[in-house]
Design goal:
With 227 residues, this protein is an alpha/beta fold. The protein contains 9 helices and 8 strands.
Length: 227
Amino acid sequence: MRQKFTVLFDLDGTLIDTAPDLMLAHNHVMKKFGFPTKSLEDLKNTVGKGAGAMIGRSIWGQAKKEFGKVVDDKIKNLMTKEFISFYGKNILHKSTLINGVKEFLIWCKDENISMAVCTNKTEHLAIDLLKKIGIYDFFEYVAGHNTFEYCKPDPRHLTTIIEILDGAKNKSIMIGDSETDANAARAAEIPIILMKDGYTEKNIDEIYHNHLITDFVGIEKIISKYL
């Protein structure tokens, strides 16, 4: 029996355009704690690193470290908790599937390809979003930033999932949208398909990738080369 091929997906900015709902939650928290709010483009640059980094970068950039280190950490933790709480209650208002995602997932299932999500989103939020938007059942495993003791860009976030699925690195590929995904895939020694307009502040030519796509339409042609 031929070993199954494995496709690992990032979530925010890769499978789902979550920026509008993340912005709603982010600005709610910033306003509540007395910090400046952010635009949609500003927010897209911070999503890939997770909630803590998103809140942190906005605080440090906009408030210019007005607090001492201990105070900063306490406030950042409170803001992160508030963000996760608010976002969890408002997770699917304006978020939408990236073009071609549903069709590609169906194709992968028909081709007997194993699929899993590897995200720096909190695990329970990732699962809730996937269920509510209607694609959760396509995936054999969902790993968030808190599933293991490590997360992207640590390559073990990817390789552990591959091991859980009884896959192999030489029969796997990652699809992501930021340097966080690319660096994890490169360190794991698996190819990376990069979304062109991802949630990152870096230019495409600054991010390692093997293939570049604008959406999921026609991506089957790339995957077929690896089967």
